[in-house]
Amino acid sequence: MVDDWHAEQELPPLDTLAARLEYLFDKIRPTPDELGDSDESGRRYTNREIADKINEVAAETGVTISAAYIGELRRGVASDPRTSHVRALATAFGVNSGYFVDDAAARRTADQLTLLNELRQMDVKQVALRQVLADNGLSATDTQLIEQMVDRLRAVAAGTGTTSSAPADRG
Question: Is there a contact between 111 and 99 (Cβ–Cβ < 8 Å)?
């Protein structure tokens, strides 16, 4: 039943290297330290920025890559990179290199990124409750109902009687 919760998160198919790489570009954003003062917070990495991250440590890793090649990998034009490029891309995005070659690792990473994005967008306690409920076999629908009940109880305790996320009692 935990798998039901993960399946209901509607992860995109991660069946090609291009899809997996594009997923990382879609979900992982530059940190504030990587952004300049004028850069837009929350924007996607560019191919050039990922290439620069890889090339900055080339003296230690021996790996260089071009932004154009990263673009080809993202589009599926190039689909069989060297192992060293896979490792470098994984390091640049902060994921395990198994993400690119192992279906189970790709799903785990995608699940972790989904949870991380939820943590950023929601109250951490609510996300923690959702994870505990999912770990105990409740579906996403059941989890949502419990969250609504908790919101309703908080509203009653606060004396308002209703919240925006839970409908008022009708009986």
Answer: no
Print burial letters for 114-145: b (CB count within 10 Å at least 16), e (below 16). ebeeeeeeeeeeebeebbebbeeebbbebbee
User: What would the pLDDT profile of 56-80 be if each residue is shown by its tens digit?
Assistant: 999 999 999 999 999 999 999 998 9
| Contact by Cβ (8 Å): 60, 79 | no
Instruction: Report how far residue 30's alpha carbon sits from residue 43's, in angstroms, rounded to the nearest whole number.
Output: 7
> How many other CB atoms are there within 10 angstroms of residue 162's CB atom?
13
Nearest-angstrom CA–CA distance, 21 and 87: 12
Q: What is the pLDDT of residues 118-128, one digit of tens each?
A: 766 666 667 67
Q: In this structure, what token pair is assigned to residue 140?
A: 């996403």
The encoded tokens of residue 73 equal 């990998």
Residue 12 has pLDDT above 80, yes or no: no
Handedness of CA 26, 15, 8, 93 (dihedral sign): negative
Contact 65, 55 (CB under 8 A): yes
Which two structure tokens, joined as six digits, stand for 35?
């952004």
The whole-angstrom separation of Cα 152 and Cα 166 is 6
